[in-house]
Amino acid sequence: MTYCVAMRLSGGVVFASDSRTNAGVDHISTFRKLHVLHQDSERTLVLQSAGNLATTQSIINLLRLRAKDDERANLLNTTSMFDAASLIGETVREVIHRDSSAQQSGSSTDFSCNILLGGQIIGEPPRLFHIYPEGNFIEATEDTPYFQIGESKYGKPIIDRVLTYDTPLEQAMCCALISIDSTLRSNLSVGLPLDVMIYRRDSFASDEQYRITEKNPYFATIRKAWSEGLLNTFLQMPPLNLAEE
Amino acid sequence: MTYCVAMRLSGGVVFASDSRTNAGVDHISTFRKLHVLHQDSERTLVLQSAGNLATTQSIINLLRLRAKDDERANLLNTTSMFDAASLIGETVREVIHRDSSAQQSGSSTDFSCNILLGGQIIGEPPRLFHIYPEGNFIEATEDTPYFQIGESKYGKPIIDRVLTYDTPLEQAMCCALISIDSTLRSNLSVGLPLDVMIYRRDSFASDEQYRITEKNPYFATIRKAWSEGLLNTFLQMPPLNLAEE
């Protein structure tokens, strides 16, 4: 399984992904699920992927290969994030159609995948899209500033409780890390290390990328602080009194 | 959808269920999902159900009807919770087989359901079982003292963080209410009122049952206190510093 979350806020976009891939419980590996395409002072595009690993790797490879061919529309020459999302959607359809049409009858492999595309192209504000296995997509808004893909439910309540469009990027990253920690604790198929990135509005940079392992002191600190804070909050709840309605 | 949780602890068993039933988004109703069978000083059995409403109502009705027939094994004359769980499992198989075999070809109704059975029969400690749509079942242990059915993921992290086998029953109920609150906030198909019950070890009672509506002052208090406590904990997290590995 996978857990990826992206938050498009007033200050920019925050990305966090786990890196565990599994086919069953005995074929577990680490694969990067956060991919960056970057052109100085012009565009920063970040893709996160969840789903069939053959599908997502094929899509990322095709998108990167085609970005070298200036003759056709590609992720490095589109002039809007909407066009970039459309291109990715077409590639999703192409790969899933190719692989699923080669499937033997009676076999039931799931070739589908979900992709998050976030970032900024010059001339536009930062944007964030969720591209579905069918190639269609939705865009994050101020009301719903974040998207999740993969094993998203365990980590959703904390985001729903603390995140708004105006949350500072550093705090949003902290929220994303707590959200992933909640998922890690409840679901074995999501695992460390994490790949995270902060993209600051109008920076067109890609330098704030980090790989977070078990040993990262900051992640260890907030995991502990969050656990203790939650337990303290719980122990301070008023004593049970259900009858008084 | 549905969310039910039951916790079998050293002091007894705690039950909490929502009451929303939906077929699609426009046929939403309130149905009780917590059912009690009780015999003074001898047994208290509590059933919680999730899944196809026709299936679960049929199962509960058959179990109650058959409990009037002393000639055959039923929930009021079994001498162990294991036998009670087996009886429920048989009834689950009977109803699902009856309804699904009447299904027209091409139709794909899901007739399945999951049932939690908790409580105590004299001569045994309190026990808790999760009965699957196939009629087989598992039992809660000291290591894994709780079961959830229905829309369980949103409310799982808080339980995993605070509940142990020795948590007092009142605190466990508070934990269950917070777990349901987290689910209510993230999933519209889980809804108030809640039906909750505390069963105290060796009491063979059934009097601590409560229906919790939007207006319940205690529930409103802990919803607010939990939200604020969580936000405060979040705001006190140390400032982001990912680079120092």
TrEMBL record, chains A, B:
Q: Which GO terms describe its cellular component?
A: proteasome core complex
Question: Could you mention a single GO BP entry for this protein?
Answer: proteolysis involved in protein catabolic process
Q: Name one Pfam family in it.
A: Proteasome
Q: Which GO terms describe its molecular function?
A: peptidase activity
- What keywords sit in the KW lines? Hydrolase, Protease, Proteasome
Top-level lineage group: Bacteria
User: What InterPro entries does the record tag this protein with?
Assistant: Ntn_hydrolases_N, Proteasome_sua/b, UCP009120_prtse
- What CDD domains does its record include? proteasome_beta_bacterial
The name this protein goes by in its record = Putative proteasome-type protease
